[in-house]
Specification:
One of its GO terms (cellular component) is endomembrane system. The chain has two domains: 163 residues, no CATH class; 237 residues, no CATH class. The protein is 66% helix and 4% strand. It has a two-stranded parallel sheet.
Length: 472
Amino acid sequence: MDSLPIDIHSGKLLNWLISRRHCKDDWQERITSIRGQIGHAIKDMPEDEQLAKLLQGSYIHYFNVRNIVDILKDTEKDSKNMFGSYASQRMKDWQAILSAYEKDNVYLAEAAQLLQRLIQYDIPAANRAITKAEKDIEDCITRQEEYAKQSENATKEYELELEKNQIKGENFRKEFIEKTASIPAFLEGVSGDIVGLKDVVAYLRGFVAFNRPGKEQPSYTPLIDAIISKGTDLTVFEFRHGKPPTAIERPKLEYVPEVNENDEIDFGDDEIDFGGDDVIAEIAVLDEEVLSGGDGVARGDEALSVLEFPATQVQLLGELEILEVSIAHRFEQEKTDFDGDVYIAALEKRPDALRVSQDQLKAWIASIKAVQQKFADPAIKRLLKIAAIPGFIETVAEEFERLKQKEQKYKRLSDLSVTKQADAVKAVESGRKQVDVNVQTLIDLKESIEKDLTAKYKRECNIIGEIYSVLP
């Protein structure tokens, strides 16, 4: 039986040492004093490569102290006297620590506790940190790819909007205000297209009158009628009041970079004071006749062309839809070519002006849709609103700023993911080094404890159990 090895479970090693009276119950109190001695002694160490390696990043325990003393025997040999003792305070300090450790086998209790801590906490925690860092690397790679793609899409979207609006994106407010200079030419072209619909309007009016003889015929397209009559010069004032204005005071849209850093817009009304109570007082004394255009001057919205003002634009598009639907209906009727229809058509005393070919009807529909399409262009709609609505330029500028920032935001997030990925790679490398240090410390402790116990019992002693779950 005496030749059989002694197997000690790693989780029960400390209790085993105390129960067999190798260590005392008060060992922790004595360790506290020893740790203080180590903390003091370590402040005064000679320059030595072996010592530096021994002390680097590891918990200093008894077996380290024993190695330190062996190294100091060489570095402090000049202080050895004729009696074999050392005059060096360094050597005295570390020898005192060694003696304190060996008294009542305090070192074995500390080594057993350190062994258990490495098995249950330090090594598993380091492995979990490595696993987390590896997961972070995968997540960062995925996010970086997603952000890079979103950044690319945002860049394309931003550049496409710049291209659509024909601006460079250097100064949104200034560039859009400059673009409004193209509005008069656009309105002139649209006005000409609408005037070109006069035959369509006349045809529709005549057709309604033919089908409802003797009845007063209302105008289904009053705004289009007015544009055909007046052209681009038709203002909202004239359309509302039935007479041309004596003067037109359009809101001015000017870019004034000197105002402040925020690129404020000057709408050209220097007389207006936007400062609180003064504004209220000014409004209170305005003459009702002036507000209603009774003085004959077109101001504000009423100074705009009916093609610019949002409300009359809506009315115009509604009237164009009436024309389109009506002519499309007539086209479908004319396209139906049954014998009965031919017979009925022969009996009708339809005026020659109402006898229009299918090709002509089709051409009219195309002309109507062409006008509708011009107003459907987002860039044109935006410019018209900028010119018609004071302050809308700020909304547009903010919209484009957000689009620009969206691109930059995803670029920053992509770069941040790359940085986090690099940090996670470093964390994995650091964690693996820490695991290697901890595992080597565990192996050294295991071998040293087994060696000491084997010497005490004159039998082979082995530490088994949970320890092998963390050893390679």
